[in-house]
Every structure is written in structure tokens, then in C-alpha cells.
Design a protein that fits this description.
The protein is of the alpha+beta class. It folds into three domains: 84 residues, no CATH class; 126 residues, Bacterial polysaccharide co-polymerase-like (2-Layer Sandwich), CATH 3.30.1890; 131 residues. 68% of the residues lie in helices and 6% in strands.
Length: 389
């Protein structure tokens, strides 16, 4: 060890600790007074705040169905998803958006007279107040949790359950699920088929009045019936092909297989139509009459197929609508959720104490700086540097 080594003075640490104690003692009134006053003020404020009760309900939205009863159900293997879903998003996200919609909010406002409850004049302000009082989120496991805060515990529970009831009403009028969209699709097709059926009936009636022919022989009727059914099957297969084009290329094996199946059905239909034409004894009049009968049978077949598909879609839609299952129905809370008075007072006291200590040390440091000529000169130089030219 070198002889010139000078051990550090322990008095440096003792002086710093002494300065700290002196500073605390010097500003003891502010350091202890401000947090105490803050604590009393926050405590009184929290006591004046009304108790808030939170009611919650948890529901499980309908999941995307496979659509096995749909003519598009077989496309699940092609798309990699369970059934043809018409591009639906996550069901939970859809139903959360519906619960937060203006339609549901307005229904809730009218149902519970929330303008009176929230003491608002404008509906816009009432919607905002309802939004602030409500929490609607989708959990990671796919459930939807609805929470409502209010000073009235019974009203909070009724409003939480009211959200679910309004959602069930809304799903009955909106095409949210795959079955709903399938029903709308077939309803549009049915309108066209109905018009085609009426036109075919009128055309046949006119040709009957013109030619006097009222019926065909048994063989012709059987061929026409078979041809109409086959033509209806071809039409439905073409609908499937049109749907497959939205996600499959022309080289897709299932798409090619369906095309080949339609081609074979068309060849079979051509043979049936040739056979039905040859049975006509009156080449000109009978051929025209035969075509009108065939058009009518075809229109009837398409109409019957679409009607059955709509009924199937309605059944699936009803099932999906009833699948909004309530896991936990909201009950009247018996314990307040807000305000947490003890926590409020504690946080306010700690925060006030911290800022008061910071204020005391900064004030003491500035006072010491004014006494030190060297530090004072540095402060003056800093002021000149910061001063605008």
C-alpha cells in the first residue's frame, strides 16, 4: 500500500445524512401537513361519491355452423374450414359489435328510460353515458362479457340482462349467421324462380288455348318429368360451381369433377329431350306444346328445390338464433365495486408525500445554491444561455 494513500473521510456521508435530516425537519410542516390535508380531502370526496354497483353477464355466441344441410356444405374440405361460411368473421367479434351498435343503445335508452336515469337532454349524451357505464368485451375463450355500472344495483342487473335480450331480438332481423345469409341467397333465387313459373304457366295456357291440346301421353309425361328433375339438378350444380369459383381455380380437382358431372348430366338431358320430342305425333304443334310443358315442369322443379332449401335454412337459422346461451345471468350485486375509498386515500397520500418531499429538497437546494458564489455564477451563466437573443 502506498504511503501517499489518504483514506476517505466518513464525515462526508455523515454530513449528507445530517443535511437530509435537517431538510426534513426544516420543512416538516409542509412534508407532513400537505399529505394529511390531501388524505382528508380525498376521504371526504370519496364519502360524498355514491356507491357504484357492477352487474355482469356472460354469454356464448353461436358458433359458425358447418352448413351440412346446405348445398355448399361439401365445400368444407376445399376451403379448409368447417363448411362454406360466406366470409364470416369471428362470431364473438360480430356479436360484440352488434351489442355496441346504435340500434341496441337506442333500444336500451327507450326500454330503461335512461335519459331520466342519466339526467341528459340529448340522445347523443345519453348514448355516451350508457357507453361509459357499460363494458362489452370478447374474452380469449370466445365468450362475451357484459358489465354495467350504476348506483342502483337492480337497474345494473336489469340493464346487463337487457343487453342480451336486445341482442337476441337483433339476430332475428339481421343475417348474421351462415344460415341467415344462405336463406337470403335462396329467397332472392326463389323470387326469380317464381316469376319464371308464372311466365311458364301463362305460356302453356296460351298454347293450350291455341292448339286445343290438354295433355300428353304417359310416356311423354314421364320423359318430361325426368328431364325437368334432371335440369333442376343441373341448375343447382351450376350454383355450386359459381360458388366454387370464388375460392377455387380452374385446375382444382373438385371443380373439374363437378364440371364433368354437369357435362354428363347435360348429355343425359339431351337424350331425354330427344326421346320426348320423338313421342310427339304432331310435329309442329306438338313440339311447341311439348316445350311449354317442359318449361313449366322445369320451373316447378326449380321452385320446389329452392322452397325446400329456404325451409332448411330457416330451421338452421332458428337453431343458430337459439344458440345464444347465457352462461351467467346477471344478478343484483350485493357489494359495491366503486369507489375504493381506502385505496384512493392511500394513493393520494403517497402521491402528495412524494411531491412534497421533492418540493422540499428542490427548495433547499436552491437556497444553498444562492449562498454558494460559485454555484450562483453558474446559475447566472445558465440564465444568459437560455435567454432569447
Amino acid at each position: 500500500m502506498s504511503d501517499n494513500f489518504i483514506p476517505p473521510k466518513s464525515t462526508d456521508y455523515e454530513i449528507s445524512l445530517l443535511d437530509l435530516v435537517i431538510t426534513l425537519a426544516k420543512h416538516k410542516k409542509i412534508i407532513f401537513g400537505v399529505p394529511l390535508i390531501t388524505a382528508l380531502f380525498v376521504a371526504i370526496l370519496s364519502l360524498l361519491s355514491p356507491d357504484i354497483y357492477t352487474a355482469s353477464t356472460q354469454i356464448m355466441p353461436p358458433q359458425q355452423q358447418s352448413g351440412a344441410s346446405s348445398p355448399f356444405g361439401q365445400f368444407g374440405a376445399l376451403t379448409g374450414f368447417p363448411g362454406f361460411s360466406f366470409g364470416l368473421r369471428n362470431p364473438a367479434d360480430i356479436y360484440v359489435a352488434m351489442l355496441k351498435s346504435r340500434t341496441v343503445s337506442d333500444n336500451m335508452i327507450k326500454r330503461f328510460q335512461l335519459q331520466v336515469v342519466f339526467k341528459t337532454k340529448l340522445v347523443t349524451d345519453t348514448r355516451k353515458a350508457l357507453e361509459n357505464a357499460s363494458s362489452i368485451v370478447a374474452s380469449k375463450d370466445g365468450f362475451i362479457v357484459v358489465k354495467v355500472d350504476d348506483t342502483n344495483p337492480k337497474l345494473a342487473a336489469d340493464m346487463a340482462n337487457g343487453y342480451v335480450e336486445e341482442l337476441q331480438k337483433l339476430t332475428q332481423v339481421l343475417a348474421v349467421s351462415e344460415a341467415s345469409q344462405r336463406r337470403l341467397f335462396f329467397e332472392k333465387q326463389l323470387l326469380q324462380a317464381k316469376r319464371a313459373l308464372v311466365d311458364a304457366e301463362l305460356s302453356l295456357k296460351k298454347i293450350q288455348e291455341k292448339t286445343g291440346l290438354l295433355q300428353l301421353d304417359a310416356q311423354a309425361q314421364e320423359l318430361i318429368r325426368a328431364g325437368a328433375e334432371l335440369k333442376g339438378q343441373i341448375a343447382m350444380k351450376e350454383v355450386e360451381l359459381g360458388a366454387m369459383r370464388t375460392f377455387a381455380t380452374g385446375n382444382n380437382p373438385d371443380y373439374i369433377r363437378t364440371q364433368q358431372l354437369v357435362g354428363g348430366m347435360r348429355n343425359q338431358l339431351a337424350k331425354i329431350e330427344t326421346g320426348s320430342v320423338s313421342t310427339s305425333k304432331a310435329p309442329e304443334v306438338g313440339l311447341e306444346y311439348l316445350r311449354k310443358v317442359r318449361d313449366l315442369k322445369y320451373a316447378e322443379t326449380i321452385y320446389d328445390i329452392l322452397t325446400k332449401q329456404i325451409e332448411i335454412a330457416k330451421i338452421d337459422e332458428a337453431k343458430e338464433g337459439s344458440l345464444i346461451q347465457i352462461l351467467d345471468k346477471a344478478v343484483v350485486p350485493d357489494k359495491k365495486s366503486k369507489p375504493k375509498r381506502s385505496l384512493m386515500v392511500l394513493l393520494a397520500t403517497v402521491s402528495a408525500g412524494f411531491f412534497t418531499l421533492l418540493y422540499a429538497f428542490i427548495k433547499e437546494a436552491l437556497q444553498n445554491a444562492r449562498k454558494d458564489t460559485k454555484t450562483q455564477a453558474q446559475l447566472q451563466a445558465l440564465k444568459k444561455t437560455l435567454r432569447w437573443n
